[in-house]
Structures are given as structure tokens and as C-alpha cells.
Amino acid sequence: MAVVTPPARPASTTPVPTDRRRRSAGGGRGDLRTAMIFLIPATIGFVVFYLVPTVRGAWFSFTNYSVLAPAEFVGLDNYRRLVDDPLFWNAMGVTGYYVVVNIVIQTVVAIGLAMLLQRMTRSILVRGMALLPYFVANVVVALVWFFMLDFQIGIVNVLLGKVGIDPQAFFGDPALALPTIALINVWRHMGYTALLIFAGLQTISPQVYEAASLDGASAWRQFRSITLPLLRPVLALVLVITVTGSFQIFDTVAVTTNGGPVNATRVIYLYIYDLAFAQLDFGYASALSVVLFAVLLVVALVQLRLLRANESDNA
Question: Which helix (H) or strand (E) holds 72?
């Protein structure tokens, strides 16, 4: 007896209702509209406090403007002036030296602190304590360290005297003033930098370290061959943030040395501030600000390119 096989049912070709597609498209537009509404306050703040002052500053850099009189257009005279300005080049050299000292020490200390936080404790309280110095205002930190490092009554020099070391003029010696300021800012910012690096460490799979341990890799080899390469995108972000912030050092210098001794700590921001608000030479100060902006832009782009920030080995 022949077996009759029923014909296969054709696949359903029922079209998606038009109103459902319309609701989906409408929901996407609604999400975009909601996002734009939330972005409006930030956009207004960016335009009012960043974009407009930037454009005005770029315009003032081509003028002779002293606030008390209308701005007079002078073309590129301000930029020609800075080429022959020894104080400008001294300020850029001092700032560059500070950036190198601050970034090298801060990055090394932050990486070590992040590794310790990851391996030695899981306490949120202990990890949060590393951020405490960052929550203190720069001016307060500078004042506290200024008194602690005072030549005559500072507790640091008192302790040095107890171990037979002569008191040190931390803020009065041209050779010590800038490294001292750099170390103060390292102490304040190392917790925040370590937190960023610690977040990057959480993205590295523990299985990678387990495989390396089975292959006999030492802790140093794992750090050099696994941790650092996989942290490259995070380190690129950290370096851009810290380098840009280091170029903008101002308040610690203004509170402790005010550019002295003998211009040994006169960083570029302090020089710009002095030109604008002490000498009322806003045109020339704006030109220096534009140059500083260009330098920071180039430095950031070079860092991102050299560190290949858009690539990751953590696959």
C-alpha cells in the first residue's frame, strides 16, 4: 500500500504590519529626541564657557587689547613678539621639565598602586581611600605642603634634622622648587590616575594570567608581556589626560613660589596669567594661549598615534 506524504506547508510570508514598523521607527526618533533634550544643557555650557571664549581669545591674539581701550588689530605682531621673548621660552622649558617629571613619576606610581589595589584588597573602602587626596582642592593641598616643607618650622625639615640631614629649602632652591611642586601634584593625583588604570586592569581576563603561569612565566614577565600591552588603550587615555593637565599647572605654583626663585617655576600658565591680569596685555596673553592650545593638540595627537589608542590586544 502506497504511503501518501502530505505536501509541506509553505513558509509563512505574512508581512510585518505597517503600523508595527512605524512604531519602531517612531521609537527610534523618540529616543533621539530625548537624547537631544538631555544634551541641550551640556551644549549650552560648552558654547558659553568654552567655544565663545576660545573664539574671542583667538581674535584677541591678533589685537593689542588692554581692556581699558578698544582692541586694535595688529595682525601677527603678537606671534612675532613671542619668537624673541626669552620669558616665553623659559616658561615653555620650565613647563616641559615639570611635565616630564610629573608624568613619569605619577604614571609609575599609579600603575604600582593599581596593581596593589587589584591583588591585595577587594575592600571598596580601602580602594576609595586612594582617592582622598584628589578630593582636596589644589590650593589647600599646596598650602598644607607649603607649611610642611617650610625651611625653618616645616615638619619635614624637623624630621630630616633628627636623622642628621641639614634643612632643605624645598621652595627656595632653584634646583628643588620645581621637582617639589611636581611631587606634591603626584601625591594629589596618583589616586585618580590609579583608579583609571585599575578600571583597565578589570578588563583583562584572569585566564590569560593562568595560561601564562602554566607556561612558567614570572610575575615580571606577565606584567611586561601581558598587562602593559593589554593596558595600552587605557594608558593612552591616562597619558593624554595627565599630560594635558600637567601643562595647565598654575594654582600650586601661584600659592607656593609664584614663579620663583629666579623664574625657576614660572610655568606658561602663570606667565599668561601675569600678562593678562597684572600687565593687562590681553592681546599677547591670548597669542600665548593659542600657541599653548596648538602645542597640546599636537602632543595629544602624537600620543594617540604612537600608543595606537584605537587598537586593543584584549580580544
Answer: strand 72-73
C-alpha cell of 64?
A: 593689542
Measured torsion, CA atoms of residues 45, 48, 53, 59, in degrees rounded to the nearest 10: 140
The torsion angle over the Cα atoms of residues 175, 180, 181 and 185, rounded to 10 degrees, is 150
**Do residues 88 and 82 make contact, with C-beta atoms less than 8 angstroms apart?**
yes
What's the rounded Cα separation, in Å, for the pair 167 and 65? 46
Of 247, 234, 141, 156, give the one whose Cα is nearest residue 187.
141
Non-local (6+) Cβ contacts of 296 within 8 A are: 244, 247
- pTM for the structure as a whole: 0.84
Over the stretch 10-25, which tens digit does the pLDDT of each residue have? 555 555 555 555 555 5
Handedness of CA 294, 110, 96, 276 (dihedral sign): positive
Give dist(CA 281, CA 78) in Å, integer: 10
Q: To 10 degrees, what angle do helices 232-247 and 174-201 make?
A: 150
Q: Are 106 and 191 contacting, i.e. CB atoms less than 8 angstroms apart?
A: no
